[in-house]
């Protein structure tokens, strides 16, 4: 789930996913596409399905980019949770343990993140909710990445025990957005057409006289 900015090498696909072993072609393709989208300023098209982040090599001190699927997004705080799909040996996870990520791109937003590592219980709750909300996506990723059958709670809990979960949130939470209905009401009120307390919305006196004379 990480890709270096250096030139392509025989082990390029391995480094793309932060692995010490060669991943399957399908796994490489799935995670390469969203990273390319972010690099070509097409992040908004991904919504909140994938995020990209920049981490620093613990030995080289060079910046690397990685991409991961978002397993939970908290609207109020803007926190996004991801998982180190190949366990604690995932290269980007080891780098994050040494030094926090320097930048996160999520959809059309780029921010400097606060970073935390989830407890096992927190991670299990995230995985349970993701499985319930996105069963097909869960099956696809489990098959592609070789996670096995995670439909039962036992295997899912074992997976969580051996795969770290990381959360990123912006230092400043995103600005709240008004619900569509409320936003429309505010727009109507601003036009002075529906608020009885607004003098501008009342009929003119001459019009009132005409109405009463009818």
From TrEMBL:
<feature type="region of interest" description="Disordered">
    <location>
        <begin position="168"/>
        <end position="214"/>
    </location>
</feature>
<dbReference type="Pfam" id="PF04075">
    <property type="entry name" value="F420H2_quin_red"/>
</dbReference>
<dbReference type="GO" id="GO:0016491">
    <property type="term" value="F:oxidoreductase activity"/>
</dbReference>
<dbReference type="InterPro" id="IPR012349">
    <property type="entry name" value="Split_barrel_FMN-bd"/>
</dbReference>
<protein>
    <recommendedName>
        <fullName>Deazaflavin-dependent oxidoreductase (Nitroreductase family)</fullName>
    </recommendedName>
</protein>
<dbReference type="InterPro" id="IPR004378">
    <property type="entry name" value="F420H2_quin_Rdtase"/>
</dbReference>
